[in-house]
Amino acid sequence: MSEVIAQLSVSLDGYLAGPESGREHPLGIGGERLHDWVFGLRSWRAGHDLEGGTTGPVDDLMAEWIERPGAVVMGHGMFITGETPWGDSPPFHTPVYVVTHHPRESVPKAGGTTYHFVTEGPEHALSLAREAAGDRDVSLAGGADLVQQFIRAGLLDELWLHIAPVFLGGGRRLFDHLGAVGAGGEKPVAWRKTQVLDSPEATHIRLRPV
Amino acid sequence: MSEVIAQLSVSLDGYLAGPESGREHPLGIGGERLHDWVFGLRSWRAGHDLEGGTTGPVDDLMAEWIERPGAVVMGHGMFITGETPWGDSPPFHTPVYVVTHHPRESVPKAGGTTYHFVTEGPEHALSLAREAAGDRDVSLAGGADLVQQFIRAGLLDELWLHIAPVFLGGGRRLFDHLGAVGAGGEKPVAWRKTQVLDSPEATHIRLRPV
C-alpha cells in the first residue's frame, strides 16, 4: 500500500512559522530562513521552473520527495496562507485534498494540481488521496494541526524533519498537541531514524515510527 | 576568556523532561530515553566510575564536555531535582553555582564538587563561575529557564543539542520563552552549526551564535 509521508522545516525551538504568520506573512516573521536549505537545490528549482542548482544527497532527498506523492492532503489553514503564493501553477502537480469545514467546488490549476475540499475529516481526505494516488504515496503537506492529528492516529509512515539552525522565539509550533506519553496508547512514542544528512542551512532527519 | 557552554538532550517535540518531572521523576515520564545516547560512552562511564564503553566521535564529544569546564552554573529547579540522584559524589568535579532565591551554606561533596548558592542572579553566578574556572570554561547545566535567560542575554558561546528520536508529548520545554524575533535585539537569532554527528539514539548538533 502507498505510504503517507510528511516533510517539515522547523526551527531549533520547534516552530514551523514565525510570529504573526497568516495570509500576509505565510511563514511569519523570520520564517523564510527555515526554508533556506531548499531554494538552491536543482530538483526544487526544476519543480519551480528555475534552472541550475546544486546536486548531492540533500538534492536527492528533495527529488525523492517530489517523485513519490501521487496526491496531497493539506489542512485548511495551510491552504488559506498558501493559495496566493502558490498561484496559478502550484508546485504539487497532483490532486490536493484540503481538510476544511467549508464546502467548495474543486479548483483545477495549471500543471496537474487540483484543489479538492473535503468536509468529512482528515481520514476521509486521506482515503480519497490514497485512491487518487494509486501506487504512489500520499504527502501530508501540513499544517501543524493536521500533522499532529496524523501522528496521534498513527497514520504517518515517514516523517522528514529539516531542522534549521535558527531560533524564531515564537510563532506556530510544529508539535504542540501530541498528547502525553502513554496517555492515548495509539501514538507511537519512539521513532527510528532511517537517514540523517547535514547541510549548512539545515540538519535533515528521516524517521519512521517503530 | 573562558567560554560558556551548554549541552542539552531534547526530544523531537522539544522537551528536555517528560510529563510530571520533579523530585520523584527527575526526567519526567519517558524522559530517560533522551539520555540513552550517553550511557554507553566510555568517557561518560569513566566519569561515573564505570568500566568499558564505546569510543568514537560521540565519545570524543562527551570527553570534551567533561574536560572543558572548570565550574558549573545551574538553576535552582535543576538542583532540586538532581541533588538526590547525583548523591555524595556528583559528576561535576568542579564548583557548581546554583542560582536561587534561597540563601544557603555551601555544600562540599566528594570528588571536587561543591555546591554554592547564589542569590544575586544568573549573571553574578556566571561571574563567580568564571573566576573559579580560571582558564577553563563554564558549563551551563540547565534547566530550561536558565538556558533561555542565557540565550536571551547573549551569554552562551556554544550550545550542544542532542536530539533524541522520541516524542514525549508533554513535559518541560527547552525553548519556551526566548522572545519573538527582533523583539529584544539582544538575542542572536541565527546560530552556526560547527559540528553535526549522528548516533542511533540521538543527532548531535553543535552551534555557536553568529
Question: How would you sum up this structure, described in words?
Answer:
- Two copies of one chain form a homodimer.
- By secondary structure, chain A is of the alpha/beta class.
- Chain A has one domain (4-209): Dihydrofolate Reductase, subunit A, CATH 3.40.430.10.
- In chain A, 25% of the residues lie in helices and 30% in strands.
- The first copy, chain A, contains six helices and eleven strands.
- In chain A, strand 3, helix 4 and strand 4 (95-99) form a beta-alpha-beta unit.
- Chain A starts with a strand and ends with a strand.
- Chain A binds chain B through residues 12-14, 18-19, 29-30, 33, 151, 161, 163, 165-171, 173-175, 178-183, 187, 189-193, 196, 198, 200, 203, 205, 207, and chain B through 12-14, 18-19, 29-30, 33, 151, 161, 163, 165-171, 173-175, 178-183, 187, 189-193, 196, 198, 200, 203, 205, 207.
Explain the layout of strands and helices.
The structure is a homodimer of 210-residue chains.
Chain A: E1 4-11, E2 15-17, H1 36-39, H2 42-47, H3 57-67, E3 69-75, H4 76-86, E4 95-99, E5 107-108, E6 114-118, H5 122-133, E7 137-142, H6 144-152, E8 158-164, E9 172-173, E10 191-199, E11 202-209
Parallel strand pairs in A: 1-7, 1-8, 3-4, 3-7, 4-6
Antiparallel strand pairs in A: 2-9, 5-6, 8-11, 10-11
Brief characterization of the structure:
With 210 residues, chain A is of the alpha/beta class. Chain A has 6 helices and 11 strands. Chain A has one domain (4-209): Dihydrofolate Reductase, subunit A (3-Layer(aba) Sandwich).
